Amino acid sequence: MSKKYRNIKQYEKEIFELKEQGLTYAQIGEHFGIERIYIKKFFERDRVKQRKIEAGIAIKKKGRPPKDYVVREEDKIAELRYILARKEAKIKSLEMQNELMRDFLSLTERK
Prior knowledge:
The protein contains 4 helices and no strands. It has helices at residues 12-20, 25-32, 36-55, 73-107.
């Protein structure tokens, strides 16, 4: 007898509990009646999400936001951190280019 369709996100808590118990992707998939590859992809998506959070990148849902969408403070802070990090990286890059150009001009005896 097949199960009624549920999105894998609805099993999220249970999947993490089973993984902590040391079960493999295949065993977890068998427990829920879904294929191993879906469990594997679920964990891959979760790892990407965790890396973005650690890097301070705002996680945005795909598609158009609903009319009653409210931006959370954490999202605003994460986005501002990301913007600052990008600006700092650009400044550092420009400083390196400037230094290289200065060295080049001094080696060619130009001012």
